[in-house]
């Protein structure tokens, strides 16, 4: 049986300033996106420029942070934050939502596309392959922090998380998400984007791929104790992922009629 090593959440300190692993994972995520984006631009995979990429990533950081926080507030603990509104700004206490961050980035993409005279889905097809490795970095941050642990299990690789306050072996669901939502999704979307595709198809594959991966891994992840299981025995993460799969499937079907293809 494995035991989580209880890493210190602080990677290193410079004087009174402590740099946390989770913050480094966010930085790594955007570095991945920047590097992969520059590669796609340099290899003629988009009409965007390097300056477009820099501007898009700058505003996407705001979209991820603001959208991720508001998504957590409204999707997961709306009643609590309604009673304690000032705590919405206490982001250092934790509480971010991928689906909220996604909505924040979609808003940024829409504004960016309009300001640059680009199609929204063209921006989406450029951004989609850049995201999964960043998701992998975020899930590794979850694992290092010993948070968002899995459900109880009897599998041989079950891991005891002292942070859970019990001695129960659990699925290391953060690592499952690291593999499924991160590495496998990256291979899927990056490989799919390596060839010319109708506008919107790359975005559609990302939505469907993430939605399916998150939905399945949620069966091994411990539900939030303040929510538990919701209708049909699904978690909040599963309910938020279902629309991604549906929208992605519709987009993929409709995109087949589009004569416009990315390079």
From TrEMBL:
EC number assigned by the record: 2.5.1.145
Biochemical pathway: Protein modification; lipoprotein biosynthesis (diacylglyceryl transfer)
InterPro entries (alphabetical): Lgt
Membrane topology: Multi-pass membrane protein
Positions bound to a 1,2-diacyl-sn-glycero-3-phospho-(1'-sn-glycerol): 139
Keywords from the named record: Cell membrane, Lipoprotein, Membrane, Transferase, Transmembrane, Transmembrane helix
Recorded superkingdom: Bacteria
Main location: membrane
Gene Ontology biological-process entries: lipoprotein biosynthetic process
One MF annotation (Gene Ontology) recorded for this entry: phosphatidylglycerol-prolipoprotein diacylglyceryl transferase activity
Record bears the keyword Transmembrane: yes
EC class (word): transferase
Signal sequence segment: none
Cellular component, GO annotation: plasma membrane
Compartments reported by the entry: Cell membrane
Function per UniProt: Catalyzes the transfer of the diacylglyceryl group from phosphatidylglycerol to the sulfhydryl group of the N-terminal cysteine of a prolipoprotein, the first step in the formation of mature lipoproteins.
Protein name: Phosphatidylglycerol--prolipoprotein diacylglyceryl transferase
Name of the coding gene: lgt
């Amino acid at each position: 049986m494995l035991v989580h090593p209880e890493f210190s959440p602080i990677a290193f300190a410079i004087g009174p300033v402590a740099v946390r692993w989770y913050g480094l994972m966010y930085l790594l995520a955007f570095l991945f996106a920047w590097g992969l984006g520059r590669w796609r631009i340099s290899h003629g995979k988009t009409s965007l420029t390097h300056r477009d990429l820099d501007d898009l990533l700058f505003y996407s950081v705001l979209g991820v942070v603001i959208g991720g926080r508001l998504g957590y507030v409204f999707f997961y603990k709306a009643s609590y934050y309604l009673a304690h509104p000032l705590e919405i700004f206490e982001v250092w206490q934790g509480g971010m939502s991928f689906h909220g961050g996604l909505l924040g980035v979609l808003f940024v993409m829409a504004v960016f596309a309009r300001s640059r005279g680009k199609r929204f889905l063209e921006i989406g097809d450029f951004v989609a392959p850049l995201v999964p490795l960043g998701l992998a970095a975020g899930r590794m941050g979850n694992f290092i922090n010993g948070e968002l642990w899995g459900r109880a299990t009897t599998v041989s690789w079950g891991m005891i998380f002292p942070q859970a306050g019990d001695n129960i072996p659990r699925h290391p669901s953060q690592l499952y998400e690291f593999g499924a939502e991160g590495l496998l999704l990256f291979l899927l979307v990056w490989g799919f984007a390596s060839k010319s595709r109708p506008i919107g198809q790359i975005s559609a594959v990302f939505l469907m791929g993430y939605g399916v991966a998150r939905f399945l891994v949620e069966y091994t992840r411990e539900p939030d104790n303040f929510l538990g299981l919701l209708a049909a025995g699904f978690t909040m993460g599963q309910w938020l992922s279902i629309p991604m799969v549906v929208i992605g499937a519709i987009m993929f079907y409709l995109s087949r009629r589009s004569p416009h293809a990315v390079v």
